[in-house]
Amino acid sequence: MWRLKVSEGGGPWLRSVNNFLGRAVWEFDPDYGTPEERAEVERVRREFTDRRFEKKESQDLLMRMQIYDLKIKKFSWSQYLDYNYENNKSNYSIHRKILTMDYYVLQYAKVKHLQVDLPAIKLADSAQVTEETLLTSLRRCLSQHSALQAHDGHWAGDFSGILFIMPILNIDMRFVAIFTTIRHAKFDSSYLLPIVFILNVHYCNEDGGWGTQVLGPSTMFGSCLNYVTLRLLGEVENDALTKGHAWILLRGSATAIPQWGKIWLSVVGLYEWSGNNSIIPELWLVPHFLPIHPGRFWCFCRLVYMPMSYLYGKKFVGPITPTIVAIREELYSVSYSEIDWNKARDTCAKEDLRYPRSLLQNVIWTCLNKFVEPVLNCWPINKLRDTALKNLMKHIHYEDESTKYIGVCPINKALDMICCWSEDPNSDALKLHLPRIYDYLWLAEDGMKAQVYDGCQSWELAFIVQAYCSTDLVNEFGPTLRKAHEFIKSSQVLENHPNSEAYYRHRSKGSWTLSTADNGWSVSDCTAEALKVKTSYF
């Protein structure tokens, strides 16, 4: 059974600035849970599967089960009341009633995990809503919500929804699991079964394709990457693969996948680099005062295209296995050796084409593909490429080290990890990367998912505290707010990153991130909300 671990690290290849505060990862424990609890988990999964086309988003029931269980096991009923009495003496007579209901709901939740709502007040249509009614409902609401707080002070939860993140993380896992001999840093294969489950059953749309996001229509980007992921995970013939294969071929085959998809397929060995638009690494060598220097790009754009340009510059391709050769023949309507890669370069399926390229974009790409890239590959100018690639790896290592190998997002983390593998498959950098993959994985009743960030702990917590404090019931939820305050206090970034200007970073000392202090990327609005809470409510 899966166990949610909060604010825990462990292992020789994990680093943290504040003892992993806010980190929430799922770990498989074969001895965890009773037979009844395991049966309940399976029942919840079956129920979600039966209605997956009606409601595609989960309710995070597995997390709720575990948080409630932790609270129940921590206290007996008398200990539960005594603990809350010490922290709520001023309103204990009222609070005891709420606690009584809360406790019995928690006990009920332990046996019937789906029942997580306290009894609602029933009012007739003509009944008058009184202040007492509102306060009772509000207390019930906050009591229920506070029961979901993790022991470190934040509220853990799902932050997924983008369907191409799991495939790119699986590509990373493939390189490490199959082609690397790293000791003490193997990827846990127990994660693969719930990944296959969610891709096969829940993410596949009724038309047979996969979308770019969980509620979206099928796209070539989502369909190709998820199809490839299932094949790389060992699936050969099943309903999802059959329908997905037909969907892809009916809409022009994988040659019509958009640019990011072309890059990832090229890395795996399912698409040729000559079918990509040029992402020249030499651009990082131009003077910084020029507006085209990548150091002037938005951070997400810069940090995603940085490893992309490295992989493009090296024309990196992973080992070609029999599985890769087989998938090559499945993704295209003609033989792989007969594909016109020059034509494929500018091909994009209509399902993925949000905005047609402008004339200016066409001119730029034509110049890069027809003139700039060929010239840069001619002697002696081609010596610049090695210099550019070494410079890029310095920036990649800096980004990894300054974020404790979490990355600014899972996209650049996955790309950085491939770059580290291509540089040295047995490097310390790759060993440090691997355990941080788990920071992006989240388990719910629909299966194992990839999150769009390593959480939004600090961001959400600031708003939660403001909501609690706006109710004038602060004294009744003192322990909850105290834990939240400690989390916010301990999540502040306390140091600037070394030599930050050389790597196009702003100062970060005193700021807050979207997620945890280990992430290291300060965010202005997260800082503003956290500072507002610190100065106005505590």
Give a short overview.
Keywords: Isomerase, Repeat. The chain has helices at residues 35-50, 61-74, 77-87, 92-111, 131-146, 165-179, 192-202, 220-232, 239-250, 259-268, 299-314, 322-331, 341-344, 359-376, 383-402, 410-423, 428-433, 457-469, 478-490, 524-536; strands at 2-6, 24-28, 441-444, 447-450.
Search tags:
538 residues; mainly alpha; Glycosyltransferase; two-stranded antiparallel sheet; 20 helices; globular
CATH fold node name of one domain? Glycosyltransferase
Helix content: 40-55%
Largest sheet: 2 strands, antiparallel
Give the overall pLDDT as a whole number. 85
Beta-strand percent range: under 5%
What is the level-2 CATH architecture name of one domain?
Answer: Alpha/alpha barrel
Q: Order of helices and strands, N to C?
A: EEHHHHHHHHHHHHHHHHHEEHHH
Round the Cα radius of gyration to an integer and report it.
26 Å
Q: What's the overall geometry?
A: globular
Annotate the secondary structure layout.
Blueprint: E1 2-6, E2 24-28, H1 35-50, H2 61-74, H3 77-87, H4 92-111, H5 131-146, H6 165-179, H7 192-202, H8 220-232, H9 239-250, H10 259-268, H11 299-314, H12 322-331, H13 341-344, H14 359-376, H15 383-402, H16 410-423, H17 428-433, E3 441-444, E4 447-450, H18 457-469, H19 478-490, H20 524-536
Antiparallel strand pairs: 1-2, 3-4
Helix pairs in contact: 2-4, 3-4, 4-5, 6-8, 6-16, 8-9, 8-12, 11-15, 11-16, 15-16, 18-19, 18-20
Pfam family, one: SQHop_cyclase_N
InterPro entries: SQ_cyclase_N, Squalene_cyclase, Terpenoid_cyclase/PrenylTrfase
Domain Squalene cyclase N-terminal: 204-410
